[in-house]
Amino acid sequence: MNIESNARNVFLSHYGRDADFVVKAPGRVNLIGEHTDYNDGFVLPCAIEYATYIAVAPRTDNMVNVLALDCNNEIDSFVLGQEVAHHPSQSWSNYVRGVVDELQKRGHVLSGCDICITGNVPQGAGLSSSAALEVGVAYAFNHLCDLFIERKEIAKIGQAAENNFVGCNCGIMDQLISACGQQGQALGIDCQSLDLIEVSINAGMTIMMINSNVKRGLVDSEYNLRREQCYDGAKAFSKPSLRHVSIEEYEANKAQLDEQVAKRVEHIVYENARTLSAMQAFTNNDIATLSKLMAQSHQSMRDLFEITTPEIDTLVEIINSVLGNKGGVRMTGGGFGGCVVAFVPNCMVEEVSAAIEANYQQQTGIKETIYTSLPASGVSVIRA
Ligand code: GLA
């Protein structure tokens, strides 16, 4: 049974009536441009076919009831029209409550509803299951209450929920691509202006996501630390953000920087340049250039930004040894585990999968999970 029908069926059996509509909000994979978003820089993600599904029906009172199918069928209930408190123990609830809190703080008048949430974005894999949930919840209330909120604003509300309510100081990339994704396209995002540039993905290539299944530890604290180090770097150049530091300025002044801050800054200034070059290379289907840019991005995350793990590096090496310059591979997402993204000619997908299956577990003791996806469209409402 497909996931949407399952969401509707469970909704019916739990609440005793039909859902009015289902919102589908995709996860994402970032092709290149890592940790550049909160430095006002450039990123190149695409939405994926793995998504969060949220079945909704209105209530006549101001209660919100939520059933989370993929979190042991846990339930949450809270009242609208007053400040929303943190849930003391269910972390997933705080993504829902956080979005409701941000909507209310912006003056939107919400009405009560029953909700059932499920989906197939792997959790904790760096494919943005949390952003999908935030964007999905914001879009669901937008639809339910006729709020007419623009997609970019939906993304900002999701990000604000994560920053202010959940406590991870993430950038805008994940929520923006979940809200604005386009079928068949990656989106080059200028994270300062939020301008979006459509970048077509060649139909002869497959996007593979290989989950290292390394459990991501200390993600939020390490993430927030990187963010602070980047601010320190920008401050050292008296710039509002690292977006405004050129490669030339960095090279001329790096000796004066704290050694660790210099590494972080070097990653960001060169990653921004790589991302702009990659947008051109994807457009021209210049695979050899992409291969080089993705390899440099990975090395930079490993040696300068220091966010990879030995298992992730092993996975990248295995895939690289098969792909050579016929495709590209790098870690994707915030880091410290999660997924590798590989851009692979369709005719090499089997060979790449076979190499991973033969070597990754043998070298690391951990079994991988392999996913493929075409670039998908952003959040949408599916009516009955
Ligand atoms: C996480 C964050 C994003 C971005 C990436 C790293 O996914 O949510 O905002 O910073 O890490 O590129």
Explain what you see.
The protein is an alpha+beta fold and 384 residues long. The protein has two domains: 201 residues, 2-Layer Sandwich (Ribosomal Protein S5, domain 2), CATH 3.30.230.10; 172 residues, Alpha-Beta Plaits (2-Layer Sandwich), CATH 3.30.70.890. Helices cover 43% and strands 23% of the residues. It contains eleven helices and twelve strands. Strands 1, 2, 3, 4, 5, 6, 7 and 12 form an eight-stranded mixed β-sheet that branches. A four-stranded antiparallel β-sheet has the order 9-10-8-11. α2 crosses α4. The longest helix has 26 residues. The protein is globular. The mean pLDDT is 96. It binds alpha-D-galactopyranose. Alpha-D-galactopyranose (GLA) binds next to α5.
Question: What is shown here, in short?
Answer:
This protein is of the alpha+beta class and 384 residues long. Helix content is 43%, strand content 23%. It has helices at 3-15, 91-105, 129-144, 151-166, 173-180, 219-236, 247-253, 259-284, 287-303, 310-323, 349-364; strands at residues 21-32, 42-58, 63-68, 74-79, 113-119, 185-190, 195-200, 205-211, 328-331, 339-345, 369-373, 380-383.
Topology:
Layout lengths: L2 H13 L5 E12 L9 E17 L4 E6 L5 E6 L11 H15 L7 E7 L9 H16 L6 H16 L6 H8 L4 E6 L4 E6 L4 E7 L7 H18 L10 H7 L5 H26 L2 H17 L6 H14 L4 E4 L7 E7 L3 H16 L4 E5 L6 E4 L1
Parallel strand pairs: 3-5
Antiparallel strand pairs: 1-2, 1-12, 2-5, 2-6, 3-4, 6-7, 8-10, 8-11, 9-10
Helix pairs in contact: 2-3, 2-4, 3-4, 3-5, 4-5, 6-8, 8-9, 10-11
Alpha-D-galactopyranose (GLA) binds next to helix 5.
